[in-house]
Amino acid sequence: MVDAQGNLHTLSVWGAMVGYRHPWSEKWRSTVSYSYVKLDSLAEQGDFAYDQTHYAQANIIWTPTKSFYVGLEYLYGHKEVQNGNGGDDHRVQLSLQYTLIR
User: Could you state, in order of their start, the residue ranges of all structural domains in the chain?
Assistant: First the structure.
């Protein structure tokens, strides 16, 4: 953060992430992960300055051939700001991948 005199002040942050990939079979696999970030924002940044975030995801990947993948993933996020307000986000995404050269 830059104060009124033009001085730069760094913010302390702490974060962690953990994930696990599980092979169900030769053609199916899943990954789950969770992450957390906590930022020590300054009071001068105001009520809506970033405070903390939780983020999680889970997916299932199908590999019908060595060059083609189909994946379905669920993602969840929660963010809180300095004044305690927060919000949740839920997403689902589908992905297709075809590799031309192996």
Answer: 13-98
